[in-house]
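Field reference: sequence -> structure
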Amino acid sequence: MRLLVTGATGLLGRELLRLAEHEVIPAYHSQQIPGGVRLDVRRQDDVLDVLRRVRPDGIIHTAFDQADWVTTADGAANIAVAGADARLVFVSTDVVFAGRAAPYDEDEPPCPVTPYGAAKAAAETAIRAIAPSAVIARTSIIVGHDGRSATERLVHAVAAGQPGAFFTGNIRCPVHVTDLASALLELLTSDVTGVAHVAGPQALNRLELGRLIAIRDGLDPDTLPFTPGLPSDVRLDSRRTGKLLTTRLRSPAEFLAGRGLHLAVGQEGAR
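Structure field:
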């Protein structure tokens, strides 16, 4: 399979490049990658031209910009139109939901309350109409293993004395980037269509996640400042998709386990 990965310079994109056993073509916008192609997903003519030249059998679309509707929403539609002959896996987000006390499963309709969530929900709607055989893979906070994820960078920055705080009222189901990339590659070659939830099985607030990262990295978790923040409990129920995968989606308590781990965290049962 010839696989095109958009957003290939990002945390998830790089992990997909590392794990994929296919012929992979990385697509980038500004940060060039050897062997890759420059792609501006905002421009339909550019997307059509690149896909005509690359002729991918599969596409994993990870590119987004939280602050730009055109990149996130229109860009996904442009990929779906131009890649009509390719197997498409679109990476969406848990913030297509507003939040509530109960987890969300794959059959729940989006109900976003942020501009980014609305852009991703619009992208999902467009892809369902344009490419009904595509996979819409919703995920949550992505954590890495080399300090590159946003949460890891924040933990280290705050521990070094820079301003910042962790929200105790913001609850998600974090997933490890390797688990997520492996699951997306599985979904690419599966016969799954429609929405798939690919998040971790453990719900944590931002402070709990930050403390686990601090412990793993030998930092003092008790020094991390926190604030309630706006209440936002968004948990993805990934049990249905998880039964279709050989990839095991680990909990943060497992993939961030380190010496001296003693923190009681989160709520089990999101899976």
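Note: The chain has two domains: 2-141+175-197, 144-172+202-235+251-268.
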